[in-house]
Amino acid sequence: MAAPDPRPPGPEELLTGSAGPVLRSLLTHAGLGLAVWDTELRCVWANDVLTRYDGIPRERRLGLPPRASLAGDADALEETLREVLGTGACVIGRPYRVPVVQGDRRPRFLAATALRLDGPDGRPLGVALLVLDVRGGRGVEDRLAVVSEAGARIGTTLDVVRTAQELADFTVPLLADYVTVDLTEAVRLGGEPLERLGTADGRVPAFRRAGVASVHDGAPESLWSSGDAVFVPEASPFTQVLHTGRPLLEPRIDTSPGTWLDHDPARAEKIRRYGMHSLLIVPLQARGLLMGVAVLVRADNPAPFDDGDRLLAEEIAARAALSLDNARRYTRERTAALTLQRSLLPRRVDGGDAMEVAAHYVPADAEYSAGGDWFDVFGLSGGRLALVVGDVVGHGIAAAAAMGRLRTAIRTLADLDLPPAELLTRLDRTSVHLVETDEASDVECCSIGATCVYAVYDPAARTCTVALAGHPPPAVTGPDGVLTFPDLPHGTPLGYGLPPHEAAVLDLPPGGLVALYSDGLVEDRRHDIGAGMERVRRALARAGGDSSLTDLCTAVVATLPRAPEDDVTLLLARAR
């Protein structure tokens, strides 16, 4: 009597034996797409229904992993199947979108279920994917689902170019084989878009490529890369869309002599080389303004664009255009705030005979608007030197304007030769009055609150008198030559009218260093402020007495673990 085979059956053996024909018939005619992979994620079986869904013949799947044997978002599906194989937990009803296949007019929207196949002993044999077409004639619901997904995947940041690229990536291969997004130069720079393309001078405005995507690696169909100026013929479908503000559908691209392509031979050559046969151009417009165009092309997909595709592309473009306009407005405000802020900051700092000084300012990362950081250095009576770093709460133009007013107020109060503590106390009252005046006149103002450190160095006494208004303490070289953060009265932020501020007098030896900074240099949402201060202290302590302060500023800022989320200001001063 033969010994039983200890090897568990493979997934392909589940479809053989006496029940094999019945099981195969059920799976073939049940309207379910089905594929089975073994424990190495090699496809061992697939039915014809799945081929109808995604256009991939059965023989092209066998032996391949999911990412090479499925269409659409196959990479993500492979990760799902790998997780199911490892954990045994089913995934039911996962949305699965595949591009247009031959015989269809538009993409399919499917529901995918993944489950692990286990043997009698509980050991995994493989993993199966069941795919069901849930459209059921619900074209409107499908379109709304796609537009909703577009809203989630397009406009994830306030960056114009990235938003344009997200639009291109989303529509390939969902609607097209090749997509470009071209924006007017003004929109890319945060300027005003067009209401429509004017005809007064007959010239087409400057366009630049902001997004490009293709089913082919590297988008070889594109004549221009992202950021390049794009040639737009004066008589072409592109200018027609710019004039009318309405989409243009060309189900079959006419390449015969006498068309607009006669004046654009480079595009004509690309169309012929890659077999482009259907064209759809959609304007990108929001709030009545035209920002650019999205160009959708089909080549590998044999189905021409139709009115259903045009309607879906319009709705996706409308969502994207709103995100583009928001990003454009943000870019404009951030540029204005940065310009205002830089105009109010000193172009250079000079410590005269008392100190060698250097400053470094880094605006926040592109996802954040300009903040209210400022710094200043100016001389006082008796050869003394004032050092200031401040930070207004908030971002944008209001914060930059408030920063400018506080900087001016400090200069005015310093002319009265006030001690640091009294100066900050009066500055606190001044900031309260500024906010009250703005509120009374209904002028947009920054929210109450700013921090500041004001230090006065006396070269005769070799001392540095420091007062804080809710600001991080400076790093100072002590008489023993060791760089520390002295324990100073912290004070309250400006703008609250609370009790008077206090000051501390610190000894500063010849060659001693004072480092004033904003919280953006030491604060991080992922780390405690103490860790940031220690990082700065170590960077400063590594410098020798003859090191350039400018180089030292650069070295300290370079220790930031990532792009700053808040403005970063660093002011270094060394006693001569």
TrEMBL record:
It comes from the Bacteria. Residues 352-575 form the PPM-type phosphatase domain. The keyword Hydrolase applies. Residues 182-334 form the GAF domain. Keywords: Hydrolase. The keyword DNA-binding does not apply. Pfam families: GAF, PAS_4, SpoIIE. This is SpoIIE family protein phosphatase. It comes from Streptomyces werraensis. The lineage of its organism: Bacteria, Bacillati, Actinomycetota, Actinomycetes, Kitasatosporales.
